[in-house]
Amino acid sequence: LMNAAVAQGVELAQITQYCDSVSLCFSKGLGAPAGAVLAGRRAFVAEAWRARKLLGGGMRQAGVLAAAARVGLEHAEETLRRDHSNARRFAEGIQELNSPLCSVSLAAVETNIVMMNVGGGWLSPPELCEHLQAVSEEEVAETGRAVSVLVFPWSAHTVRAVWHRDVSAHDTELAKKKLEFVARKWQE
């Protein structure tokens, strides 16, 4: 929800105005270790509160999480814009790579998510993910770095990469270089 609002340059209320209820997670992009907020009609929230209590969902140190969520919300626009920019830079790197191993639709990169199309019969998405995560002696010897990139095999031909507040512009450049290394090795 926050990523969509920032990407579209609109208030959250504009997106959620037609919803009966909304849940907003404070982890990952906003940087809180855990936590979420639930909004909706009073009766709905009261029932959710009761169900949470019945299932043992109480926390003793909720203030600590609330403080982290508050900081995340105060810096959300700046943080999420940076995540979107890093995702875009990575996608542009895939396009510049011009490899039969993978491709991307830049038009589809609107937020912090990049969906890489894996093609050419070179590697399957799980295999590509394994190679991006693994560090070989050859890589260290050739690049002088040990870089492990964690991405997710999303479908039979797609890998999903997601940026959050703990992935910097420098990390993004390292991920691009790692993908270049893997693509070059498989094309050789």
Secondary-structure blueprint:
Elements: H1 2-8, H2 12-16, E1 21-25, E2 36-40, H3 42-54, H4 62-74, H5 76-97, E3 102-103, E4 113-118, H6 125-133, H7 137-143, E5 152-155, E6 158-162, H8 169-187
Antiparallel strand pairs: 1-2, 3-4, 4-6, 5-6
Describe the structure.
GO terms for molecular function: L-allo-threonine aldolase activity. This is THA2 aldolase. InterPro entries: ArAA_b-elim_lyase/Thr_aldolase, PyrdxlP-dep_Trfase, PyrdxlP-dep_Trfase_major, PyrdxlP-dep_Trfase_small. One of its GO terms (biological process) is L-threonine catabolic process. It comes from Columbina picui. The chain has about 190 residues and is an alpha+beta fold. It has two domains: about 1-75, no CATH class; about 80-185, Aspartate Aminotransferase, domain 1, CATH 3.90.1150.10. The chain contains eight helices and six strands. The strands form two sheets. It has a four-stranded antiparallel beta sheet. A hairpin with a 2-residue loop joins strand 5 and strand 6. Helix 1 crosses helix 5 (about 75-95) and helix 5 (about 75-95) packs parallel to helix 8 (about 170-185). It starts with a helix and ends with a helix. The mean pLDDT is about 90.
